[in-house]
Each structure stands twice: as structure tokens, then as C-alpha cells.
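ok, trying the design again with the full structure, not the truncated one.
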């Protein structure tokens, strides 16, 4: 089992220390982005709906997970390094408080439907009057203009809309979704990139700006070479299982104890692959060049499958790895999560100690001078209200007024 890295005491300041983020986002893409910002040292204030909080708290939750951790794995995976506070934005007092907080923040993030924040009096044009340096981030399904902008959607809907689902699955089979929320998580990195660029611009000019991204933008980015191929040649690609149209071999093959992926697109790499596994059967004229291998795809896949089926996956990986051929065993989730290689690069972190520790995937990059760090576990709902209100100078009398007005949910 991979051993998680522990946060070191006295760790250097994060790259985003001093940056304050007011986070209205929910579920996956927005929280994934703000978790990365929090890992980099930003102060993330997570604003949640009274009573239920972020819907991800109950996404796929089991009784065991709720009893042990108080929330679903989905929520726990994407919400470390944040503080939670509830606000009922249906109440004018809550909206006034949110605007006051935004005036003292560097970044505001939301993934409501386009225009929703403006109806609350919390749109960019409204908030920038009090805070010209504000970086205001909106994340939506289809963007804020166009014939579909009024629609809500999730990751699977955009896998369908973008064509991704149409190229995923077995040949001649039904459309299949990618097993993970690939568009949501890609969009989170797009949002982080836009925020970092906007912070750099503000450092030079003092001016904030609006940062917009969407599931549509991210799905198109993931499908970019398929779209370009279509625009240039008219090609509409179909699903090919684990294979693809670019090169052969480039797919999963059977092993004696599972499956391995073998990728040998270049002619010299294929030659090394053939020599390492079975030159007598694989080093044939009909397989010599990339064009030959694509023309004779069916035959090559059949012959290579016969070779690999007789070998354990460990042997195939060792032989091809030594020959500098791209190869990987097809792991299940547990094998991949506990693999020593992930731990070796600091890819697993532990939040908390003992039986209640939460194992989590680290940020997707490493910085040598300002490394990512973990300062706090995913927060319980509204756990940090008092500290956050202190931070913004909200005194006891004003808190009582806001509470009575229902700004934090129905008054007791």
C-alpha cells in the first residue's frame, strides 16, 4: 500500500499565501479548482447553502462513510484546505454580507447558472465597484451566451454533447461515458490557470478581471484534435475500444494474468517491441512501417495478442520497459491507488491521524520553492462561521441581527 506524505511542520509559505478566495462553487469542478488554490496557500472561504451544504457532501455517500467521516468520498476528495460558512442568498441581509466580504477578497468563484450572481447583486460589474482588483470567476455548463447558455448540465451531459461519448467504448457498441468526471476535472485546471494568469496581470497593473470557463470549453479542448481532423478532412471517428486511429499498436492486449497496454507508434520502437517479445512472429514485412501497421491492423493485433496472451503481465512490462517501449499494466482502482510509484512522487497525502485519517490525492504538480501543503481537513458544514465573521469584523450585535434575519438559514 502506498504510504501517504505527511505535511511537514514549518513548511515554507505557499505561492498564494495572502490570497483570499470567496468560493460559492459546488459539486466537482469549482471545488476541485479551489482545493488546488488552497493547497498553494490561498485562504478559501467556502460559502454553502444552509442545511444541506455543498451537494457533493451526499454524492454517493454510504452509511459507513457518513458514520466514519461525516461526508461522502466525493466531498472529502475535493475540499481540503477550506473553511465553511453558510449563507442563505435568498435573504437580502446575506447578499449584503456576501458583497461586504467580496470587497475584501482577491477572488470570487461561482458555478451558478449564468447571470445568477448578478440577480443577487453579486455580479462582476456590481462587485468591482467596491473592489477594482477583484478577480471574478464564473464557471457554467455551456457559457454565458449562445442558444444553450440557459441550460444546466454536468460532466456526463458534456461528454454526450461534445462527441466524447461517441468515440468511447467498443467498436460497434453503444456510446460509453468515460469512467471519471474527466471534463469537470479538466475544467478545474482551466479555471486555476485563468485565475493565476489574472493574478499575474493584477500584480502588474492593479486591475482585476472576469475569468470565465465552462464545461463546453473544456470538453472542446479535450476533443480538439478530433474536431480539427473533422474540419480538415471530414473524418468522424468511431469508438475503437482501447485502440485509436493514430497508430498501431496502441491499445490493451491480453496477458496470462490480465491485460497490458502496448504503445509503439514509431518504426524504431515497433522494431524494439518485436525483438523483445517474439521477433520470429512480429518482425514481418507487413508490419515494418507505420503505414504498413495501420493497413494490417487486424492481423498485427491478432498476432501480438497471441504472443502476449502466453506471458504474465509482469514479464511483458519488464521486457518492453527494458526495450524502451511504452507499456503499462491495466490496473484496477485499488492497484493504482496503492502503487508504490504514486507514493514515490508524493501523489498521496494523509489528512488527520489514526483511524480517522483521510487519504487523498495531492495537487497535480509540485513546486520546489513553494510546495503545496495541507493545513486543514475538509470542513464540516458551517464549522468556521465565527472565525470568518471575526476576520471580516462582524461584531456580535451585527451577527445577532443577521441571524434573526435568516442570513445564515432559518433562525433558531
Amino acid at each position: 500500500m502506498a504510504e501517504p506524505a505527511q505535511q511537514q511542520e514549518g513548511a515554507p509559505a505557499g505561492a498564494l499565501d495572502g490570497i483570499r478566495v470567496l468560493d460559492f462553487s459546488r459539486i466537482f469542478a469549482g471545488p476541485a479548482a479551489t482545493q488546488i488554490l488552497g493547497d498553494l496557500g490561498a485562504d478559501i472561504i467556502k460559502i454553502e447553502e444552509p442545511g444541506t451544504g455543498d451537494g457533493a457532501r451526499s454524492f454517493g455517500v454510504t452509511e459507513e462513510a457518513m458514520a466514519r467521516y461525516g461526508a461522502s468520498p466525493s466531498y472529502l476528495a475535493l475540499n481540503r484546505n477550506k473553511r465553511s460558512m453558510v449563507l442563505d442568498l435568498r435573504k437580502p441581509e446575506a447578499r449584503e454580507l456576501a458583497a461586504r466580504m467580496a470587497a475584501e477578497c482577491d477572488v470570487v468563484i461561482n458555478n451558478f447558472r449564468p447571470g445568477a450572481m448578478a440577480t443577487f447583486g453579486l455580479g462582476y460589474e456590481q462587485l468591482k465597484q467596491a473592489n477594482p482588483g477583484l478577480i471574478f470567476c464564473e464557471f457554467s455548463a455551456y457559457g454565458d451566451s449562445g442558444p444553450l447558455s440557459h441550460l444546466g448540465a454536468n460532466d456526463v451531459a458534456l461528454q454526450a454533447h461534445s462527441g466524447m461519448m461517441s468515440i468511447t467504448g467498443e467498436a460497434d457498441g453503444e456510446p460509453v461515458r468515460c469512467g471519471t468526471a474527466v471534463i469537470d476535472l479538466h475544467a478545474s485546471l482551466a479555471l486555476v490557470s485563468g485565475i493565476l494568469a489574472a493574478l499575474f496581470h493584477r500584480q502588474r497593473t492593479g486591475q482585476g478581471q472576469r475569468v470565465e470557463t465552462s464545461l463546453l470549453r473544456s470538453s472542446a479542448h479535450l476533443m480538439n484534435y478530433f474536431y480539427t481532423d473533422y474540419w480538415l478532412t471530414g473524418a468522424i471517428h468511431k469508438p475503437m475500444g482501447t485502440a485509436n486511429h493514430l497508430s498501431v499498436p496502441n491499445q490493451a492486449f491480453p496477458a496470462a494474468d490480465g491485460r497490458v497496454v502496448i504503445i509503439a507508434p514509431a518504426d524504431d520502437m515497433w522494431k524494439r517491441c518485436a525483438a523483445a517479445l517474439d521477433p520470429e512472429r512480429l518482425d514481418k514485412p507487413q508490419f515494418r512501417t507505420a503505414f504498413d501497421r495501420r493497413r494490417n491492423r487486424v492481423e498485427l493485433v491478432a498476432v501480438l495478442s497471441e504472443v502476449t496472451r502466453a506471458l504474465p503481465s509482469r514479464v511483458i512490462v519488464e521486457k518492453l520497459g527494458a526495450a524502451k517501449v511504452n507499456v503499462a499494466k491495466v490496473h484496477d482502482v485499488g492497484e493504482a491507488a496503492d502503487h508504490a510509484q504514486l507514493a514515490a512522487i508524493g501523489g498521496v497525502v494523509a489528512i488527520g491521524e489514526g483511524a480517522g485519517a483521510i487519504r487523498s490525492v495531492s495537487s497535480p504538480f509540485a513546486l520546489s520553492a513553494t510546495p503545496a501543503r495541507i493545513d486543514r481537513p475538509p470542513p464540516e458544514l458551517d464549522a468556521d462561521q465565527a472565525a470568518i465573521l471575526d476576520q471580516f469584523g462582524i461584531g456580535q450585535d451585527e451577527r445577532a441581527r443577521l441571524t434573526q434575519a435568516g442570513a445564515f438559514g432559518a433562525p433558531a
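Keeping the full-length input from now on. The chain has 19 helices and eleven strands.
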